[in-house]
Amino acid sequence: MKKLLSALLFFSTISFYTNAQEIKYTNGKNAWNADSLGNQRALVKVTHNGDIAKVLIRWRRSDPNPEQKAIIVFDAQTGKRIKNILPVTLKKEYGIICFKPESGQGNYYIYYQPYNNEGRSNYPKGIYPKQEQTSDWISVKEASKIAPVTEVLEIQSINAFNSVYPMEVIATADEVTNLKAKNLEPAYLVFPESRNYPIIMRNDIPQRWILKGAQKTFTDKALRGENFSFQLGIYALKDLQNVKLKFSDLKDKAGNKISAKLISCLNTDGTAYDGNVLSKEVNVPQNQVQALWNLLTIPTTAKAGKYTGTVIVSATNAPSQTIQLNITVDAQIAKENGINEPRKQTRLTWLNSTLAQKNTVIAPYIPLQISGNSISFLGRKVELDKNGFPKQIQTFFSPEMTEITPTPNNLLYENIHFHFVRKADGKNIKMADGGVEFTKKEAGTVQWKAKSGNDSLQVDVTGSLEFDGFLAYTVKVTALKDVALKDVTMHIPFNKTAATYMMGLGQKGGLRPEQVDWKWEVATKNQDGTWLGNVNAGLQYSLRDENYVRPLNTNFYLQKPLLLPKSWGNENKGGISVGIKGSSMLANNYTGEHQMKKGDVLYYNFNLLITPFHTINTDFQWETRFYHKYSTIDSIKATGASVVNIHHANAINPWINYPFIEHAKMKKYIDEAHAKGLKVKIYNTVRELSNRAYETFPMRSLGYEIYSTGKGGGFSWLQEHVKDDYIAAWFVPEIKDAAIVNSGMSRWHNYYVEGMNWLTKNVGIDGIYLDDVAFDRITMKRVKRVLTQNGHPGIIDLHSANQYNKADGFNNSANLYMEHFPYLNRLWFGEYFDYEKNKPDFYLTEVSGIPFGLMGEMLQDGGNPWRGMIYGMTNRLPWSGNNDPRPLWKVWDNFGMKGTKMIGYWSPNCPVKTSNAEVLATVYKKQGAALVSIASWSEKDETITLNIDWNKLGINPAKAVLTVPEVQNFQIGASIGSPTEITIPKGKGLLIVIKEKN
């Protein structure tokens, strides 16, 4: 009986404090070290004398397992840590803690989510330690007899960004039970919520909703022209299937109307990244909360006043509910639809944007031209066979890649074709081809269809070619009766000269091996195709089916790898072999045995990219010099650089891939740069997104559409607010910017394009710096269109760390990102690339960009400046290690590189060659002069002679003067006089100027 009375007394005490204590939540203004003490603390006041203070904190925590997390107490008066503490009870709803108040009466801080950062600084693992054992100054039994009379003054978050109030202050179990009892709805409760309070929690409902109660009305205000939004929080009392919203028109008393067609639910309807209509099913598990975000752009023509309407909430397995909407429209017109106030979620509308979606031709490309079954475009031509596949592919680029010529380079030895091989007799099933029918003829896109077949199989081919050289094929194979196939193959027979180099399928970029045999291994290999080609003619292809989903990349491939194509992969029986067959170099794409029942359908889809995309722009290379760091404009201008790359994690672009918060500072900086003749590009890509994005939780409400599923963890903010089911990405310790991995192709790309448009128009950016890419060519084209609008330069350079490793699925950076190359201005493929051990063919294919119409720069350890100059590359300030590029820039300026013709060692027209095959020469030629770049890949010092074709060089040898210009940390100046023996040190080289005397 005595125990029962003690228990009743104890719980009545808890109940008293629960009801009596109105806790205030405040901003701690970074007053303590969160990395050791955590982000939340309670300020308590001891009002009595004694050796033991006991406090009941009604903290209403949303974090899981509080009983497993330590408690730390500090004396606010002395700043010292209290040693003697005893957490009596730690639950999500409340905590009861005893401690020794060493200063007696006064204030004390109780930290209840302390963590430590372990692991890499940029990929931390936030660890929440358990309670340390303290001296037995008091037992639990003794503590239970003490009344908790210490006063809780407030709960403080380290700063406003870490605040849990009000949407992460949970309701108690009793409150939820009472709420259910007061509402007769058997399936779900609806909580209309303002856009100012994004719904965060999924497994708890906020105390705010207990105080408000389940509502049947929503009331708010909006401006004319504003991108208005609001939420409906659905709390499922049982599993809900296919939740839908149906809106009525909004009307005022005078009969003015805002059409229901203008209102949509972001979670169920929208526009996909490729412009197609998006429809999603929303299911809500029992006892979980689902936020439904609703968008309405108020017409600028709307009359001011109060508008009313309804939204009907329905589910296939539950009764519908009707919520009344009361929207007061102010007479004021919102500026730019209110997107200047993103905290109001006015930019959520961007997620459904179709901006720059129309496939208009982008410079320097030209409109597609059709003649019969041939389609011509910049520097290339495709002739279609009667089955819809390419009969011939031609390029017209010179070997030097500096001009387009009338002489074609034929890629194919014969047409691309399929073989369907019967299992019974091993013979090819003959098909009757129906011919090509063009279904679209536009400047930017040409589409066609073709049909082939016989009595057992029907092959429906849909093809499209875009202005940049991208060919996409959908190949639908239908069984008209049961058929057993020994193999299905697609043959791409290359001309041998058009397949000199290879990259992909586990092959490092370089000279093509004699034979390559490859099998699908999607769980660990991000490989589904290859590039084969020469410098001025090549073809990348990739094999896919109708279920293709873009995998993650850049350290995260293994967490979301490729899906094995049902057709090409065929339960890992498929593969690719590449090798010489007769007079051709054959890429044989095979599937192995298939058993197809009547009516079965398989998709043998594939994409082709015809390279190069355009000629190299050497003048851009010589004139455009990047400075890759946020520094003062004057200091950058003094280096001779012409373009500033603003990375993230600095004053004007602090938050990764979310450059909208400090845009005013960014604009001021860019305005100064423009006034002083410099351009400014910013870091902004898609792969991961800062947790500072205003739209984080609205986008989390979309499930896995924008954020990838994952094991969670990472920095404390992510664990405490996002909680679970995400992948923690890049983290910046200095500013605590914690990114989350994007899921792949999503409506975030629509937002990304709109954001680029806004930055170009309002902030004045001159382009972007891409640090790897997690979107496809559709988004890249849209980005290029908005960046180059109204005469803006729209400069894009792409950096990639070497993707050929386990975490990235052993793909080649150039192969992975080739679809983006048509819209880039420069490559920076340098991190983890080895410039010392790799051969010239690797430089050419994987680093230089030249076979694709691009030029590049080096990075890792400053690169090799002698070898780099063979490809027109230096490194980049200030990421230059010991190889400052400015001495080479000075040589460029003194020689006058602008207007020169670059003739690389790979060209048969190169007028200067050396006597050693491992020592290569590239010539930069102009009227009466040439700069000769020599670099060695030999393992030892070499003595060479120059073999000069003076006619090709255009210089009279009798008047030629050869000099070695002085270049700091590169070479010592000298006069050669006439061609003679030259010593080239191992791994280095020489620059020689040849001029004709007047």
What does this protein structure show overall?
This protein is mostly beta strands. The longest helix is centred in the N-terminal third of the chain and has 19 residues, at 2-20. The model is unreliable at 1-21 (pLDDT under 50). Strands 29, 30, 31, 32, 34, 35, 37, 38, 42 and 43 form a 10-stranded antiparallel β-sheet that branches. Strands 28, 33, 36, 39, 40 and 41 form a 6-stranded antiparallel β-sheet that branches. It is globular. The protein is built from 17 helices and 62 strands. Helix content is 14%, strand content 36%.
Topology at a glance:
Layout (H helix, E strand, L loop, with lengths): L1 H19 L3 E4 L6 H4 L2 E7 L6 E5 L14 E4 L9 E6 L4 E5 L6 E6 L4 E5 L2 E5 L12 H5 L6 E7 L15 H10 L5 E7 L12 H6 L4 E8 L2 E10 L7 E4 L2 E2 L5 E2 L4 E3 L3 E3 L5 E3 L9 E9 L7 E11 L2 E16 L35 E3 L2 E4 L2 E5 L5 E8 L6 E7 L6 E6 L9 E10 L3 E9 L3 E10 L3 E10 L3 E13 L5 E4 L2 E5 L3 E5 L9 E6 L2 E8 L30 E7 L2 E7 L3 E3 L4 E3 L1 E7 L6 H6 L2 E2 L5 H7 L3 E4 L16 H13 L3 E5 L4 E3 L5 H5 L15 H7 L5 E5 L4 E5 L6 H16 L3 E5 L5 H11 L7 E5 L13 H4 L9 E3 L11 H9 L16 H6 L15 H10 L5 E3 L8 E3 L4 E8 L2 E8 L5 E3 L1 E3 L1 H4 L6 E5 L9 E4 L4 E3 L4 E8 L2
Parallel strand pairs: 1-10, 12-22, 44-45, 45-46, 46-50, 50-51, 51-52
Antiparallel strand pairs: 2-7, 2-10, 3-6, 4-7, 5-6, 8-9, 11-13, 13-20, 14-21, 15-16, 17-20, 18-19, 21-22, 23-24, 24-25, 25-26, 26-27, 28-33, 29-30, 30-31, 31-32, 32-42, 32-43, 33-40, 33-41, 34-35, 34-37, 36-39, 37-38, 38-43, 39-40, 47-49, 48-49, 53-55, 54-58, 55-56, 56-62, 57-61, 59-60, 59-62
Helix pairs in contact: 11-12
